[in-house]
Amino acid sequence: MPKGVYQRKHQVWNKGLTKETDVRLMEVSRSLKGHVVKQDTRDKLSVPKLGVKLTEEGKRSIGIASKKRWADPEYKKIVGEKISEARIGMKFTDEHVKNIGIASKKRWQNPEYRSLLDEIKHADEYRDNISVKAKERYQDPVYIEKMRKLHESPEFLNKLRREKHTDEWKQSISLMMKEMWKNPEFAEMQAAKMLEGNMKVGPNKPEKKLLELLNTIFPNTMKYTGDGSFWIMGRNPDFININRKKQAIELLGCYWHGCPEHFPDVKKQKKFNTEVKLLKGFGYSTLGVWEHELDDIVTLTTKLKEFIEA
To answer: Which domains can be identified in the chain, with CATH numbers?
Structure first.
């Protein structure tokens, strides 16, 4: 045999082919379906790759191939189930948890990722799927007992207390709730829950006093809406003008809203100022009435007349 015959590069028989374009690959794929790879085989395959640094082109090609595989619903289902089974009882190290957090933060910095995730979360199919899975889990006595023990464990309770009382935790919850209340659907849903009787909502004593005064000065003009019957972008004004004027009145508790005379608190006052700006964007003018102003009916009457008659 001529010299150099064995020096030719070996050409892989299935290079460039897929199971959609070659019958042989389809047969191989079917024969391997459900085949369990032994651990020693996995180790032999993974050991040579330890310490190997992939090039950017290599990473990109792996990413493209992975996306194609995950686009297949059957592949996604099978692999997803295997991953879920493998994670049962798994305890992550602190370093692993930290790395997951760093990767998650990087993903959230991408606007396209946030937009895509938001669309998925608000899809009816996604919500229904989550609801069904949650119901299935809570029908399993083993899972229920496991969750009960977890929530009663001192480690979990101590961790929860530490996290709940940090300023960072409070700020994150506050930002999250503000974003949720900006969603009209969420605000209407919460209002519906309150009106269904989950919470008894009605005017308190100061609000009743102000409502009586409004009905005396301007009958059938201002309506009490603090019961959740009227919402604008997650805001629920106490009183709304029902005679074609876009006017709102908020009764501000001296303590809760940081009254300048009795409980000065600039941070608490910002909440009302934010509401005034928000309602103004929808064409509403807003009047704030401090709780202590109810003690001087004459002065308050003048103030209300100037606002409503404007």
So the answer is: 205-308 (3.40.960.10)
How many other C-beta atoms lie within 10 A of the C-beta of residue 296? Answer: 11
Q: What is the pLDDT of residue 249?
A: 96
- Rounded to 5°, the CA angle 225-230-232 comes to 130
List pLDDT tens digits, range 25-59.
Answer: 667 666 766 677 777 777 766 665 666 677 888 88
> Is the pTM higher than 0.90?
no
Residue 233 banded pLDDT, cuts 50, 70, 90: confident
Q: Which residue has the tokens 């509401």?
A: 275
Alpha-carbon 301 to chain mean position: 44
In eight-state DSSP terms, residue 232 is B
Alpha helices in the chain (DSSP H): 23-32, 39-46, 56-70, 73-87, 94-108, 111-121, 124-137, 141-152, 154-164, 167-181, 184-193, 205-217, 266-280, 297-308
The tokens describing 147, both together, are 């969750």
Q: For residue 134, what are its two tokens?
A: 């949650």
Q: Which of 272, 212, 217 is nearest to 248 (CA)?
A: 272
Establish how many alpha carbons lie within 13 A of residue 130's alpha carbon, considering only the half-sphere containing its beta carbon. 8
- How far is residue 108's CA from residue 114's CA, in Å, rounded to a whole number? 6
Our CA dihedral for 84, 89, 90, 92, rounded to 10 degrees, sits at 120
Name the pLDDT band for 3 (thresholds 50, 70, 90).
very low
pLDDT digits (tens, 9 = 90+) for 68-126: 888 888 888 888 777 777 766 667 777 887 888 888 888 888 888 777 777 766 666 77
Q: Are 220 and 214 in contact (CB under 8 A)?
A: no
Burial class (CB in 10 A: 0-12, 13-18, 19+), 281: exposed
d(CA 208, CA 175): 32
